[in-house]
Design a protein that fits this description.
heterodimer; A: mainly alpha; about 45% helix; extended; B: mainly alpha; Cytochrome Bc1 Complex, Chain D, domain 2; about 0% strand
């Protein structure tokens, strides 16, 4: 009976195992990388908004505090997007004939909400709570970056589970004094870990990593 | 491949495919979320307003003093609760968030927004306002005044009173005399006044 496989088939078979392994590893690596890439997470990507609202103008330029607009951030899970009335507090009088602001005036006249596009958007099976963070020395800029330099708001971090856990496991790397929480320009001192450990103790931080903390 | 095996495989493929489909559903579940859009109601809002006239149990605003700054129709010149250090600091924070953009950090009426073209905001250090009753300031926050919008939606009742307390402190600070400083700290104040500029900012606190 003639042989179906030549002798070299042995080597080929061995090589193909290695190649298959390498391919699988590459594919795995590519997926690992792709999964965390800005393409998937949509980091640093601005969204189309009905009004080009600029934190750079309002926070960086005229120095309005976050809480003037995001009034709920200290007391509830949601920071909240301000109602049209909040814009009209100022824009009833200034830039009140700017065509860019027409959708705001329109909304104020007919009582329909401005349909802002959500930027930071966790999947619905993950639970997040602002008040639990911002009252415990976690600053806005730790999670949202230098919003005072963003002409249109973008998502600063991946918002993936590993990102949450990185801080829940090592809060001392990120914690800041409570009176600096709303200061977007705050910089970590050189001895952050030391200071951080003190603050973690002072504020009694015990961020949990059990699944039911965020998946409830 | 036996027929049973094939069916099992097809089933597995279907489960995986369905699973992939479900993933998006779990990311975006069909429940209503805060501030989200909902086509169900005519105003497109998922969040429903209270039916007009609804009063949650225990929230009837009976206390005229606390909620309107008035008693028997007249503005009061007192606080509905004790103003301690904590309340004063709360008032300072809230003032800096909600009022300083127009009234400025010292209450002179020249905040950033006024500098960008808003009508000049009231100067808290004019005699009329220095002698004004506390209830009046509460009323301006709750209902607005002339060109100034109301802050009823943004500032809770107790915080409004805390702001009023801080405004009174600002007014005192701009007309303070050295004799007003407790004797124990007078030397400190004199030293600060004699040269260093930062003292002015410190005095407001």
């Amino acid at each position: 009976m003639a042989q179906i496989f030549p002798k070299s088939a042995n080597a080929l078979a061995q090589a193909s195992i290695i190649v298959a392994g390498a391919l699988a590893a590459t594919a795995g690596g590519a997926l690992y990388w792709l999964q965390r890439s800005p393409y998937v997470t949509r980091q640093h990507e601005t969204r189309e908004q009905p009004v080009p609202f600029s934190h750079q103008h309002h926070v960086g330029g005229i120095g309005v505090d976050c809480r003037y607009c995001h009034t709920a951030v200290e007391k509830s899970a949601k920071a909240g997007i301000p109602p049209t009335k909040t814009c009209m507090n100022c824009h009833a009088q200034i830039w009140n004939d700017s065509p860019t602001l027409e959708p705001v005036r329109q909304s104020f006249r007919d009582g329909k909400s401005i349909a802002w596009t959500k930027v930071n958007d966790l999947p619905d099976f993950a639970y997040f709570n602002h008040s639990a963070h911002v009252n415990k020395g976690m600053g806005c800029s730790t999670c949202h970056g230098r919003i005072d330099l963003q002409p249109l708001a973008w998502q600063e971090h991946s918002l993936q589970m590993e990102w949450c856990l990185e801080c829940h496991r090592n809060p001392e790397k990120f914690v800041r004094p409570q009176d600096q929480v709303f200061n977007v320009a705050w910089q970590a001192p050189a001895n952050q870990i030391e200071v951080g450990k003190e603050l973690v103790k002072k504020y009694g931080l015990k961020p949990r990593t059990s699944c039911s903390t965020c998946h409830r | 491949m036996s027929a049973r095996r094939r069916n099992l495989l097809a089933g597995l493929v279907a489960v995986v495919a369905l699973g992939a489909g479900c993933r998006q559903d779990m990311h975006d579940q069909p429940r209503l979320k805060a501030q989200a859009r909902s086509e169900f109601w005519r105003d497109d809002r998922a969040g429903r307003p209270l039916v007009e006239g609804t009063i949650p149990r225990g929230h009837l605003r009976e206390d005229e003093f606390l909620y309107t700054g008035r008693q028997y129709g007249q503005f009061v010149n007192a606080f509905p609760f004790v103003i301690d250090q904590k309340r004063m600091e709360r008032g300072r924070d809230r003032y800096n968030i909600y009022c300083a953009p127009c009234h400025g950090a010292t209450g002179a009426g020249n905040g950033m927004v006024v500098q960008r073209g808003y009508r000049a905001a009231g100067n808290f250090h004019q005699d009329r306002l220095r002698n004004e009753r506390l209830g009046y300031f509460y009323d301006v926050i709750a209902n607005g005044f002339g060109a100034m919008p109301d802050y009823a939606a943004q500032i809770g009742v107790e915080d409004r009173w805390a702001i009023v307390a801080y405004i009174r402190a600002l007014q005192l600070s701009q007309h303070a005399r050295l004799e007003d400083v407790p004797a124990a700290r007078r030397a400190e104040a004199e030293k600060a006044l004699s040269g260093a500029a930062p003292a002015a900012a410190g005095a407001a606190h």
